[in-house]
UniProtKB/TrEMBL annotation:
Name of the protein this chain belongs to: DUF1697 domain-containing protein
PANTHER family xref list: BLL4334 PROTEIN, DUF1697 DOMAIN-CONTAINING PROTEIN
InterPro entries with a match to the protein in the record: DUF1697
Superkingdom of source: Bacteria
Entries under Pfam families matching the protein: DUF1697
Length: 185
């Protein structure tokens, strides 16, 4: 069987805590027998290759190992390289560039939205605009304007609307994750 490249998007990682440092996280993934283990930034993004296509099983196995070995209780969301490539290739943000006034984010949901609400809900925050929902990557895509002195409480809105089994990454981070994953296993 050939390996598939994945990224584990770990929720609630604080790099200042000793058990949440990249070397400890990578150690857990190495210990599970995954190959090509690497971290991206210091916010809980671990890329790896595995010989399974069952992402639900991977999520459970990783979550259990992180809790058992490091005492980390946050959620684990796994996306394959192909899911992330397809998301990026759709160019959901068009010509927008990531900046303070156009802060681009992808919020990955544990479970797909079924059905996808029409119209898609909009936050009460005037500084935030939902660009769309990508069903393949199970991601809510948004643009925030962070130039005002009061920062929008978009993360709280996301949790109220979609639950706590979510995790948000900047669009730049999504691109950095993909750069760490080889084109083939």
């Amino acid at each position: 069987m050939t390996s598939t490249w994945y990224c584990a998007l770990l929720r609630g990682i604080t790099p200042g805590k000793p058990n949440m440092r990249n070397e400890k996280l990578r150690g857990v993934f190495d210990g599970m027998g995954f190959t090509g283990v690497a971290s991206v930034l210091s916010s809980g993004n671990i890329v790896f290759a595995a010989e399974t296509t069952d992402t639900t099983a991977l999520e459970g196995r990783i979550r259990g190992a992180l809790r058992g070995e490091l005492g980390i209780g946050g959620e684990t969301i796994v996306r394959s390289r192909s899911e992330l490539v397809t998301l990026v290739d759709t160019e959901p943000f068009g010509e927008l560039q990531h900046a303070r006034e156009t802060y681009l984010t992808a919020t990955f949901l544990k479970e797909p939205l079924e059905p996808v609400p029409e119209p898609f809900p909009e936050p009460d925050e005037p500084a935030v605009r939902i660009v769309g929902y990508d069903p393949g990557a199970r991601a809510v895509l948004a643009v925030s304007d962070n130039t005002s002195s009061s920062s929008p409480d978009f993360m709280a809105w996301l949790e109220r609307r979609f639950g706590k089994d979510i995790t948000t990454r900047t669009w730049l981070t999504v691109h950095r994750i993909l750069k760490r994953m080889p084109d083939c296993a």
